[in-house]
Q: What sequence folds into this?
């Protein structure tokens, strides 16, 4: 019993302790909220970066060209039959349509470059439109096709660094042999001259550093190695001296190479590329890339500067000029990229889509759902409600828990050895993929189902048995319906996890390039297919830069599917949830 004299001391101790406890509780809450905020910030940063990368994939710049479908090219047999229309020269039809826009291009090498404005696979799309409407033969048809992927990125401002400079003087263009002499009444080229000179000096300094490194390396070498290092140092020093001399404009001109920014003079339909700049900042030499305006003074002209050197990009100045001309003529339209969802995979990024992978994922998940959920639920029912508790069932439980922790690649090896090598099932088929993912998902479904069954109160079973229900009636009429929310939640989460797996599917050949989407039906189960995670893997390894945006877009589609699965799990759990 506490002495009454100690009560004041006890109260004082409590009053001293409470503030410390409140401060500790506040620190814990702040730490918890900070952890949640940090996790949310990281998630937002991750999703935001993916969305920013994916934005270019959801739109596409399309060429809108009038094409003349002359019957001798499109219908060589002249009978309008499907066989004749399929033998038409649609590639030549597209080439003629592009040549009409640039009639001055006659050189064979330039023509080959001109036809890279689009991919030749668009001829098949044109053929499909003619087959769908044979009445187009002999008419002029407006055909829309995506522009080449690199040019599409250029038009979206994601390929090069460029800028447009306003001019103050009047420009005189005089023909000088194959080139042109440009003279401005103001010093419009002075800033560009200084920029180029500074770049040349920086490059010369870099060569000097490399030359010094070669000399230092030669000090520790002998024989031929020393001679090679000294020769390299001399060559680098000579190149650096030449660049410095050019930067100082000792000859009165500075030459523009493909390692320097490209400078274009634009006026109307004429595009000239500067090849040299003079020391006075008023004169320049140029070559024509499009059009021809000479012997006149031009007041309305501008300088278009591409700071990314031509040697460091996949798109030439000539292609950029043709593309800008098509945009000025209104023949390029920015539209929603329906091909991303309507097409299967393609070697050309502008035609690649997720349709094939999406259909393959649907078929694969249907097989996984059909096999793993019923087998897993009935296995869990037997182990939890019927099986005797002995060493054998304990061994089964331990193995099921161990299988849930096995790396997914092991299930891929199992599928390769059993389903393909032993049973002879087709590689890269949704049937095999579904079987492999079913084996991987089965332990998760069994564990989730057993947990849901254990959560049903024992009183439910006792009440059912008390009114005369059999063991089976108790399980299927009372226990299983009450455990359904947990079973559905665990099953759907397991299926969502299986949807994001890549490693086991790589082992069974679903990494193959699939150009056609499988059929959504029984016949599609054995057709070659791929799935969304594998499609993301393939595109991430693509050489073309445009595949970067499509990889991010495919990730967003996959995330949307998985979020949908998890949202469905939350809805079902709340819809069927029971509280006791």
A:
């Amino acid at each position: 019993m506490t002495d009454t004299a100690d009560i004041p001391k006890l109260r004082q101790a409590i009053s001293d302790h409470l503030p410390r406890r409140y401060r500790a509780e506040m620190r814990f809450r702040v730490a918890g909220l900070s952890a949640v905020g940090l996790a949310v910030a990281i998630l937002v940063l991750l999703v935001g970066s993916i969305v920013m990368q994916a934005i270019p994939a959801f739109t596409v710049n399309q060429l809108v060209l009038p094409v003349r479908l002359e019957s001798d090219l499109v219908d060589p047999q002249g009978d309008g039959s499907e066989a004749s229309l399929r033998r038409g020269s649609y590639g030549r039809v597209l080439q003629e349509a592009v040549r009409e826009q640039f009639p001055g291009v006659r050189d064979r090498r330039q023509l080959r470059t001109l036809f890279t404005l689009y991919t030749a696979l668009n001829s098949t799309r044109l053929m499909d439109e003619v087959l769908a409407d044979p009445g187009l033969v002999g008419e002029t048809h407006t055909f829309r096709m995506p522009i080449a992927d690199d040019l599409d990125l250029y038009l979206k401002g994601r390929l090069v660094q460029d800028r447009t400079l306003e001019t103050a003087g009047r420009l005189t263009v005089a023909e000088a042999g194959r080139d042109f002499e440009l003279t401005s009444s103001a010093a419009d080229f002075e800033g560009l001259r200084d920029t180029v000179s500074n770049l040349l000096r920086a490059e010369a300094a870099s060569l000097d550093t490399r030359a010094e490194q070669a000399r230092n390396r030669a000090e520790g070498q002998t024989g031929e190695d020393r001679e090679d290092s000294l020769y390299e140092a001399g060559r680098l020093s000579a190149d650096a001296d030449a660049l410095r001399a050019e930067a100082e404009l000792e000859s009165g001109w500075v030459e523009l190479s493909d390692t320097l920014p490209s400078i274009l003079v634009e006026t109307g339909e004429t595009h000239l590329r500067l090849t040299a700049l003079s020391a006075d900042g008023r004169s320049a030499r140029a070559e024509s890339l499009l059009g021809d305006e000479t012997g006149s003074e031009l007041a309305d002209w501008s300088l278009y500067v591409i700071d990314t050197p031509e040697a460091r990009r996949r798109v030439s100045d000539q292609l950029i000029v043709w593309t800008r001309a098509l945009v000025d003529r209104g023949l390029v339209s920015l539209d929603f990229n329906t091909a991303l969802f309507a097409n299967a995979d393609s070697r050309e990024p502008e035609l690649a889509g997720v349709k094939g992978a999406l259909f393959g994922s649907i078929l694969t998940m249907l097989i996984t759902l059909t096999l793993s959920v019923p087998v897993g639920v009935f296995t869990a029912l037997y182990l939890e409600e019927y099986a005797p508790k002995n060493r054998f069932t304990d061994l089964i439980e331990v193995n099921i828990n161990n299988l849930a922790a096995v790396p997914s690649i092991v299930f891929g090896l199992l599928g390769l050895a059993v389903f393909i090598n032993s049973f002879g099932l087709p590689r890269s088929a949704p049937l095999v993929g579904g079987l492999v993912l079913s084996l991987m998902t089965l332990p998760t479904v069994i564990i989730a189902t057993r947990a849901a069954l254990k959560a049903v109160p024992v009183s439910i079973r006792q009440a059912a048995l008390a009114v005369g229900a059999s063991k089976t009636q108790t399980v299927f009429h009372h226990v299983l319906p009450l455990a359904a929310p947990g079973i559905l939640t665990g099953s759907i989460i397991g299926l969502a996890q299986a949807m994001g797996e890549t490693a086991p599917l790589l082992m069974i050949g679903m990494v193959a390039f699939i150009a056609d989407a499988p059929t959504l039906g029984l016949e599609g189960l054995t057709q070659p297919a791929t799935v969304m995670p594998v499609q993301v893997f393939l595109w991430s390894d693509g050489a073309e830069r445009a595949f970067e945006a499509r990889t991010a877009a495919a990730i967003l589609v996959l995330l949307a599917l998985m979020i949908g699965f998890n949202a469905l799990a939350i809805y079902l759990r709340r819809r069927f949830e029971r509280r006791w």
In short: The chain has a mean pLDDT of 88. The longest helix spans residues 7-54.
